Predict the 3D structure of the following.
Amino acid sequence: MKTYYVYIMTNKKNGTLYIGVTGNLERRVYEHKQKLIEGFTKKYNLHKLVYYESGTDVSSAITREKQLKKWLRKWKIELIEKENPDWVDLANDWYE
């Protein structure tokens, strides 16, 4: 069964936030880290994965992404800090 991820990238603690959805989190985070895709994350150097959640329904993942994007910044920060209070890059040791 396929897994889908909703994730949040940033450049630093309390920095700019990007929320996305993907079916391959490792590949997508790598693309962000290597600045392989033009756009918001490349422009603002968003290279730290600070939050993600997973599920098996793509529609639910897309709905959740849209929901989080509408949240107040304060709520997004609280969500991150509940799971990752030090804003550690969760993908720090995924790549060589």
Q: What stands out?
A: The chain has four helices and three strands. Residues 4-83 form a domain with the GIY-YIG endonuclease fold (CATH 3.40.1440.10). The radius of gyration is 13 Å. The chain has one domain: 4-83.
